[in-house]
Amino acid sequence: MSEILMNRMDWTNYEQRVRGDGAVVFLPCGATEQHGPHLPLGTDHILAHEVAAGVARRVGGIVAPALSYGYKSQVKCGGGQHFCGTTSLDAATLIGNVRDTIREFARHGARAVVLCNGHYENTWFLIEGIELAMRELGPSPSLRVMRLEYWDFMTGSTLGKVFPEGFPGFALEHAAVLETSMMLHYHPDLVRLDRIPGDGPAHFPEYETFPPYTHLVPPSGVLSSARAATREKGDWLVEEVTDRISAAVRKEFG
Fold first, then answer.
1. What is the pTM of this model?
2. Is 45 considered catalytic here?
3. Three-state DSSP class for 29?
4. What is the distance between the terminal CA atoms of the chain, rounded to a whole angstrom?
5. Residue 123: count of CB within 10 angstroms of its CB
6. Alpha-carbon distance 243 to 48, whole Å?
7. Catalytic member of 44, 50, 149, 173
């Protein structure tokens, strides 16, 4: 199988793949953020990378190095900025990183780029970075961009299997069943099952305050219990996400 990782290619091979073969370039976007005592700080960019790599293998794409720092962790979906190890960017910095990276891919001759996001808080700033890059490239750019959150490709039927007692929602799934199960699929060596806390689910008001009410976040940083996570559930989720994202990429880019 051809190499899929951009940072393992020499520039001539990369040029041939991008300009000659028209390979789709995948840009994983994540964060460096606490994920409880049982998952690594890099969970968001690790999962974004692995999902992108699985799809790239299916469609003959290339995976660029991940954007590993994301927008600031929010209390209601990531636990907040008060945890040691969480290392975040201001919005303008993330927007600029995305804009500049897409502009560089266009300069390389890429015709299709897919941003695969693994950090809930990134979404609107990725969009802004894409829009600024496309504005710089002019009214008829040769480059097209797709942006996605991998969890949007999880269907209700699969979520029903994973959560037979009811799905708590994606925001409360920080460091919980979904991410832990997928990490058990991709990197079981990085998961400490013996350290999964019993915290959660967290309860937040319908509004937000500044400074945030960090006391509402469980001390572990986990917003909903991960004790129901299994490798089998990770297998189901990864298979569905990879299948459905691959189909979307083929639909958009041929």
1. 0.96
2. no
3. strand
4. 20
5. 14
6. 15
7. 44
